[in-house]
Write the C-alpha cells for this entry.
Amino acid sequence: MNKRVVVILFSAFIVAAICSFLVSRLVGKRVLASHSNMTRVVVATTDIKLGSVLRDVDVTLSEVASPAPKGAILNLKDAIGRGVISNLYQNEPVLDSRLAAAGSGGGLAAIISPGMRACAVKVDDVVGVAGFVTPGMRVDVLISGNPPGTPNPVDGPKVKTLLQNIEVLSAGTDIQKDQEGKPKPVQVVNLLVTPEQAEDLSLASNQTHIQLVLRNPLDTQIAQPPGTVMANLYADKNSPAPKPRTVSTPRVVRAPAPQVVLVQVFNGSKRTEEKFVSGEVQK
C-alpha cells in the first residue's frame, strides 16, 4: 500500500476519534445539566376523588422541571394515609394544601375548616338531579311557610332569605325509608355554615320549606330583601296605590265643673260654714 495513503487514513482516524470524544463530552454535559434541573415529586397515578384516603398505589414519584411547584410533596410517606380535600387528576403533582392534615382521615369531615360545620339540607329533585348544585358553588337559602302564630294568614305563606353566600361542600343522594318502610332516594346537599347558622337551618328544615338559589361566586355582597307574601304576587303593581284613609277621632265634650256655694250660719255668737253644690241649694 502506498505510504501516503496510509498516512492519510491514519490522520482521518485520529481526527474522527477526537471529534467523537468532543461530541460525547458535550452531550454528556447537557444530559447531566438536564438531570440536575429536574426534581422528584409525588404525583397521582390515577384520578382521585374528594374525600378519598391516599394509598400507596394512588401515588408515585416522578421528575418535573425545577423549580418544583410550591407546596409539592417530595416524599411518599408524607402523602400516604392522608385525606384528599380537592379532586386530584392523573400525573398531577400532589400539593400539601390539597390534602387534609395527617391523622384527620378522609371523607367529608376532613374538608371542614376549623370553627365551621357541615349541615345537610334536603332539596327537590330538580335542584339535585339536574346538577345545578355542585361542590364549591355558592348559594342563598330561602325559606317559605306560615309565620308562627298565624296558621292561616290572610296574605298567604311568606318567603324570606335566611342565609346568603353559603358554600356547598357536597351534593348527592341519601337513602331514606317511606311510611311503608321502602327505601327511597332523597337529594341532600351539605352546606358549610357556622354553628349559629346550623341551628337556624336545623329549625327551618323541620318547620318550613327550603329552597337553594345559586349566586355568582364573585358576588359577595349581602342583600337585604324584605321578603314577600302570597298576596303580593297577585297584586296589580300597575294600579296606583290606595290613599290612606283618615280616621276622624270623636270630639270629647267635657261637663262643666259644678259650682260650690258657701253658706254661713249664725247661731248667737256661734258661726258655722257649710259648702253646697249649686244643684243641692236649689233642692
User: Anything to note?
Assistant: The chain has a mean pLDDT of 78.
